[in-house]
Write a structure and sequence with these properties.
This protein is an alpha/beta fold. The chain folds into three domains: about 350 residues, Alkaline Phosphatase, subunit A (3-Layer(aba) Sandwich), CATH 3.40.720.10; about 45 residues, no CATH class; about 80 residues, Arylsulfatase, C-terminal domain, CATH 3.30.1120. It is built from nine helices and 20 strands. The strands form five sheets. The chain has a ten-stranded mixed sheet with strand order 6-5-4-3-11-1-12-13-2-14, with helices on both faces. A four-stranded antiparallel sheet has the order 15-16-17-20, covered by helices on one side. Helix 4 runs parallel beside helix 5. It is globular. Bound molecules: 2-acetamido-2-deoxy-6-O-sulfo-beta-D-galactopyranose and calcium ion. The site of calcium ion has 6 residues, from loops.
Length: about 500
């Protein structure tokens, strides 16, 4: 690609995909030829992080360039939550918009909808959506596939809603709707049993979180999610080409988050059961998108970035055999812990960038965070960040292109309880925190301990030996560094309710 031209940008953002889940990151059990191709022709990062071990805060970080501690509402959200991004702050799509790009989100949102002043009325136009945060086009599902309402939202409206069959949603513990099928009342309707939680509404044979009534025609088919989102992504690219505009696409893939329902032709694609099969499906989506770009002659004029919002989990609440069929597959690769965790498996994620001519090929050990994409793209686009915007984003453009092998000096992450982790040099520091060391239902080590933990990442990537007692000065310094970040200017955090 011509260095003076500004590339189109596609962020492919998987959901709960671990550091070891891709062929190019060492998996032998799941073939991921398309992401592997991105990797072969681009730059693979080994020290890249999401800012959180769960979804909502990570997505907040990537789209705002802020650490999630700046927003009191940045926790896993229910499907009827208000939007947690203050519409007055600068966002990644706004940055691209200012640089003349067409922008779109396709896929999983999970940052809340509506201004939060009252419950969302799903039967009317929703007043605060990605359209109000800088996206020109938006085709999403509101939260996760396991949370109601199980419908697509395009722009401000539910897709395919029949006004005669309005949607009502409740996250009360008790079901307020007598006439809907629920998990305990109607087990005969289930096609997949839950292992924990996911026992409220039954939608299309699957127990979900939250209760939903109505909207029958608008309800998605789980096995169609992948193709539906893909076709929207492709349509957006087509339209951008017709308009002769550069584009920014944030394509938030829903795989391999639960419930895992691949399109029928991907069933059995791997020996790992549906968790592996939906990763194969996800990889196919990546390949189809690349084909589309290739067909239009713009593959090499497009920067493609592939990553995940947090680490992996096998049993996340459904009896889908993910544990039983896992065999020797290591979803977090050599890392300890997984989704939710303070260990590396929670936040260190696959991160691949391809853009021939701009981005070198190979492997980079540079320390980078997804939170840095904001300032790095500002650099690439020659665009200004609005005052007070992207507070925690550092310009890592030189690291993204492979020119700088070092990256950040320090980077903060958090686990599901918002307990903090700091990477600095060869060290990973886990601040002391209360809570259980192991989450038995999801079978994940949390990394929570009342003692400070310090691991030397050069020698101990699996975080087996806590050397905090041997290096008290390092522990003190790491802790002070965390406090300094936490005390840094705290503006624009959106505090509501
Ligand atoms: C948990 C859900 C889990 C998943 C997670 C959010 C239960 C028992 N577990 O509460 O299935 O939805 O929230 O995942 O309900 S995330 O990737 O969106 O953060
Ligand atoms: Ca996730």
């Amino acid at each position: 690609m011509d260095q003076t031209k500004r590339p189109n940008v596609v962020i492919l953002y998987a959901d709960d995909l671990g550091y070891g889940d891709l062929g190019c990151y060492g998996s032998h059990e799941v073939a991921t030829p398309n992401v592997d191709r991105l990797c072969r022709e681009g730059l693979k990062f080994t020290n890249a992080y999401a800012v959180s071990a769960v979804c909502t805060p990570s997505r907040y970080g990537i789209l705002t360039g802020r650490y999630p501690f700046r927003c009191d509402l940045a926790h896993i959200l229910p499907g009827d939550a208000g939007c947690i991004i203050d519409p007055s702050i600068d966002t990644l799509p706004r940055l691209f918009g200012r640089a003349g790009y067409r922008t779109a989100i396709v896929g999983k949102w999970h940052l809340g909808l509506g201004d939060g002043s009252g419950p969302i009325d799903w039967n009317r136009e929703i007043d605060l959506t990605p359209l109000d945060l800088g996206f020109d086009e938006s085709f999403i599902f509101p939260a996760t596939a396991d949370r109601v309402p199980c419908v697509y939202v395009e722009g401000r409206s539910v897709v395919g809603l029949d006004p005669e069959d309005p949607i009502e949603v409740s996250y009360d513990e008790e079901c307020p709707f007598e006439d809907i099928p629920t998990y305990h009342k109607n087990p005969e309707l289930l096609t997949m049993r839950s292992s924990h939680g996911h026992d409220m509404s039954i939608v299309k044979g699957i127990g979900r979180i939250g209760y939903m009534r109505g909207g029958t025609k608008a309800t998605w088919k789980d096995e169609d999610l992948a193709e539906t989102f893909l076709s929207r992504a492709v349509r957006f690219i087509e339209e951008s080409r017709q308009a002769d505009r550069p584009f920014f696409l944030y394509y938030a893939l829903h795989q391999p988050h639960v419930p895992r329902v691949p399109a029928p032709r991907f069933r059995g694609a791997t020996g790992l059961g549906v968790r592996g099969d939906v990763i194969a499906e996800m990889d196919w989506c990546v390949g189809e998108l690349m084909k589309e770009l290739e067909k239009r002659g713009i593959l090499d004029d497009t920067m493609i970035l592939f990553s995940s919002d947090n680490g992996p989990v096998l049993d996340d609440g459904y009896e889908d055999m993910a544990n039983e069929l896992n065999g020797t597959h290591r979803a977090a690769g050599p890392l300890r812990g997984g989704k939710y965790s303070k260990f590396e498996g929670g936040t260190r994620i696959p991160f691949v960038v391809r853009c021939p001519g701009l981005v070198r090929r190979g492997v980079s050990d540079a320390l980078v965070g997804q939170v840095d994409l904001f300032a790095s793209f500002a650099h690439m686009l020659g665009a200004e960040i609005e005052p007070g915007g992207a507070l925690d984003s550092q310009d890592m453009y030189a690291a993204l292109t492979g020119e700088d092998p070092v990256g950040r000096d320090e980077l903060m992450m958090e686990d599901i309880t918002c307990s903090k982790i700091l990477r600095h040099g060869n060290w990973a520091y886990l601040e002391p925190s209360d809570g259980i060391p192991y989450m038995p239902k999801v079978r994940i080590e949390t990394g929570r301990s009342k003692e400070p933990q310090l691991y030397n990442m050069d020698y101990d990537i699996g975080q087996r030996t806590n050397v905090a007692a041997e290096f008290p000065d390092v522990v003190k310094e790491m802790d002070e560094r965390l406090r300094r970040i936490m005390a840094s200017e705290r503006t624009g955090g959106f505090v509501r309710r």
